[in-house]
Specification:
Helix content is 32%, strand content 28%. The protein is of the alpha/beta class. The longest helix is centred in the middle third of the chain and has 18 residues. The chain binds cytidine-5'-monophosphate.
Length: 335
């Protein structure tokens, strides 16, 4: 219960609950979860106006605020007991907006971020394709985090089962060639319309596609125990965007099962990336299909050991990892 939330809001927070969390009491479910929660925290006070004005109430609130806990409201007006004054719980819509505001950093205001996400599907014939297990969750979480940070976001999505995050422009594609064309078009718009174009490649693009797409369904030959399919290499989307003369800031991802650091650093240099986030997909608890991730992020830095700086992001929800990545990205844009 305590671990998953990005924000823990107690609404309505009584004077008693606020006193208990201010004191660090954790002898029942609510206060135990509160103390065990790692994300942001907020209270929405609700009480009688005289209780609100009481010195102990105000002292407890000051303690909570000094610990970085947000206080939403209270509103003012007619109260359940008939009194009039401060202490009314804010409306649900106001609370929802205040929750969203907690994540609005403005770190990417003015930037136009183009993100690829999900798998690609490479057709063999009208009914069959080659693909992979990418869920698209990391790319969608990043799109959401970039919007929170004030960026304009274009999300180029392969076939995934995810809702479009609010305020994100989504372009659906199927194959790697479609994804490349959509990426080039979106990056051109980002470069023309924004002082800070950014390209983030989270998609698990199929490395190869069938050389020929059969016009009709491939039939099983009665005597054939094997079927040979010739594959040709797909273009590397992120590398081709990074090759552009006035290239945007380019961030790539790497999913590795071993020698994570060596492969990540090789990709950083070879694909001319400005930042690469790498996860170890041999771990069953993170990465593909999972709601959690843990990453190591690398970027070129002449001052650092072997010319590459690194930061470890501990296991957290993809939403939390996405916000950390946005902070690292924004720091690279300004320095
Ligand atoms: O070489 P590898 O596939 O491991 O590289 C991963 C990174 O390159 C990811 O950022 C992925 O989105 C990107 N990529 C791409 N086009 C490809 C293959 C990978 O943009 N054809």
């Amino acid at each position: 219960l305590a671990r998953w939330a990005d924000l823990f809001l107690v609404a309505a927070a009584s004077a008693d609950t606020r006193a208990r969390v201010a004191q660090g009491i954790a002898n029942e479910l609510l206060t135990s979860c509160w103390r065990g929660a790692a994300g942001e925290k907020a209270v929405a006070p609700a009480m009688n106006q005289q209780m609100w004005a009481d010195a102990a109430t105000q002292a407890n609130l000051a303690t909570l605020k000094s610990r970085g806990i947000a206080v939403f409201g209270p509103g003012s007006g007619v109260q359940a007991c008939g009194d009039v004054g401060a202490g009314r719980l804010l409306e649900a819509e106001q609370l929802a907006d205040l929750c969203a505001d907690q994540f609005e950093s403005g770190l990417l205001s003015g930037a136009h971020v183009v993100i690829t996400a999900g798998p690609t599907r490479e057709a063999l014939d009208p009914v069959r394709y080659l693909s992979n297990h990418s869920s698209g969750k990391m790319g969608f979480a990043l799109a959401e985090a970039c919007v929170e940070a004030g960026a304009r976001v274009t999300l180029i999505a392969g076939p995934v089962h995810l809702p479009t995050p609010a305020r994100v422009q989504r372009v659906d594609v199927v194959s790697a060639l479609d994804m490349l064309a959509a990426s080039e078009a979106a990056v051109a718009v980002a470069k023309a319309g924004s002082s800070q174009p950014v390209f983030i490649a989270t998609a698990a693009v199929a490395d190869y596609r069938p050389a020929q797409v059969a016009a009709q369904k491939i039939k099983k030959g009665l005597k054939d125990d094997t079927l040979d399919i010739t594959l040709v290499k797909n273009p590397d989307i992120v590398a081709s965007i990074a090759e552009q003369a006035d290239k945007p800031f380019v961030m790539g991802f790497a999913a590795e099962t071993h020698a994570v650091e060596a492969y990540a650093c090789d990709k950083l240099a070879r694909k001319k990336l400005d930042l690469i986030a790498c996860n170890d997909v041999s771990r069953a608890d993170i990465g593909f299909q999972s709601d959690d991730n843990a990453m190591t992020v690398f970027w070129p830095d002449t001052q650092a050991n072997e010319g590459v700086a690194r930061v470890e992001l501990a296991k957290a929800s993809k939403a939390q990892i996405a916000r950390e990545l946005v902070r690292l990205l924004a720091a690279r844009l300004t320095y």
